[in-house]
Amino acid sequence: MVTCAQVLKELSNYIDEDIDPRLRAEIEEHLRGCHRCSILLDSTRKTLRIVGDDRVFEVPAGYSERLHQFLTNKLGI
Amino acid sequence: MAATNPLPPLNNAVERDESDLIKCVCGGQKELFHELIRPYERGIYLAAFSILHNQADAEEAAQEALLKAFAHLHELRSGEKFKSWLFLIAVNEARMRRRKNHQHLFEPIDDEASESEEGGFMPRQFADWHDVPSEAFEKKEIRIAVQKALDGLPPKYREVFILRDVQHLSVAETGRVLGLSTPAVKTQLHRARLQMREQLAPVFGKRWSDRLPFIKGRKPW
Prior knowledge:
- The complex is a heterodimer.
- By secondary structure, chain A is mainly α.
- Chain A has one domain.
- Chain A is 71% helix and 0% strand.
- The mean pLDDT of chain A is 95.
- Chain B has 2 domains: 14-106, Orthogonal Bundle (Rna Polymerase Sigma Factor, Chain: A), CATH 1.10.1740.10; 120-213, Winged helix-like DNA-binding domain superfamily/Winged helix DNA-binding domain (Arc Repressor Mutant, subunit A), CATH 1.10.10.10.
- Chain B is mostly helical.
- In chain B, α3 packs antiparallel against α7, α4 crosses α5 (82-100) and α5 packs parallel to α8 (171-178).
- At the A-B interface, α1, α3 and α4 of A face α3, α4, α6, α7 and α9 of B.
């Protein structure tokens, strides 16, 4: 049976599915009985969902237009 | 009856279109370069900004990186992914500018000793998180909270996090762009994720919607 510390250590690999199947099964068993580790996993996944959405990051107004104009001017394209 | 060929997966289709575009640009249809880089222009800016922390510098770095990409496009090897190649150029351009501006001298020194410590970071926030409706991602309050959390990461964690979790490069591609081994990418990514989660927990944890007046009165989950 894995401990909370082991779950914490493997959390990122677990999310990326880059983990030995046996350890994965042990972590899943731990998660069924550990509310704190379940919250840790769920909130980390939600963090990745938020930052993985392009809309959450702002680029300066007019950036795209300036970029393409720059390329047009410099490259004549 | 003739056998029907299954449709290729979308990713393959996208990559094929991209490789066609690259061939066209290298073959003289230079104006298609605009189309080629359009899916990556935001990401290139964000990667540069994660290194330079200044809008004007990041924008200039993105422009110069794309000029260089155009000039060297014919050197892109067959089978090499355009996206990671482009990010490699952008990261190098931004790092060069950072060195030139001596910005790295003002950044916090990473604690190398903690690299060998198991975990290296202990979470403290254990409030349950609600599902965040995706339409909220464009809201200023959310954007500010995410940017602030990102700014709070040590620089080397931030660069890995941006390439892997924001731009969705693979671990191997992230390592290639940043000049890091796969284990180093994984270690830094793990710590970056935990720290980002910790920083965002007060915003997205229980009762987060009470902090966001724009969405009061609605319960999207």
